[in-house]
Amino acid sequence: MDAAEEIRFYYDFKSPFSFLALAPACTLERTHRVRLSFIPRDFEPRLAYGGELEERSQRDWDKVRYLYADARRFANQRGMIIRGPQKLFDSRLAMMSGIYAEQRGRFREYAPLVFERFFKRELDIEEPAALAGVLREAGLDADDFARYAAFDGRDDLARAYEQAERDGVFGVPTLIVAGEPFWGNDRIGWVIKKLDAMGLRREAAATR
Predict the structure, then answer these.
(1) Rounded to whole angstroms, what are the CA distances from 147 to 5, 75, 143, 158, 171?
(2) pLDDT, tens digit, 9 for 90 and up, residues 34-73
(3) Entry pTM
(4) Which of 112, 109, 95 minimizes the C-alpha distance to 40?
(5) CATH T-level topology, domain 5-206
């Protein structure tokens, strides 16, 4: 693609709003001369929502329930299913698998499968064998990923977190466009306006 601008898309596989943002963000590559780079960043639910499940106050639980209600409202508009996870998942292994898929040019095939099944409660993102099945389905080498996760994966994940710090990312999904952050799945419209102002809309998309 004749991409003139890189957009950094920060995500976490356990973030419902990252799931909601993924497809609209990928559409930008068809409508505008941009290329998305997918970078994981833990959204740290313990910090955001009041610690471990048994430590949450009533206000913390009210916040969580409201946010998932919003996520389901967005999802219902698009025929998607989002069910709240039944525990606080450690998504580090899954995020390493996202880096692995991105490095091999298969993130766009792999990530939707992980998101969809996780939020249907059909995929345990902490379980290596479960992720291996999805990797294979997306055309990736699960055995090679296991070696990657054991050696280079942790360093690559640490570098991704460092990039997020440099970009000032405090939550996901965040899109960075020409140095400007856009946080939330419902900010894609603002991203489009910025890209249009930068003259990056593709001619075919502009004439539709």
Answers:
(1) 33, 35, 7, 17, 29
(2) 999 999 999 865 555 555 555 657 777 677 788 899 999 9
(3) 0.91
(4) 95
(5) Glutaredoxin (3.40.30)
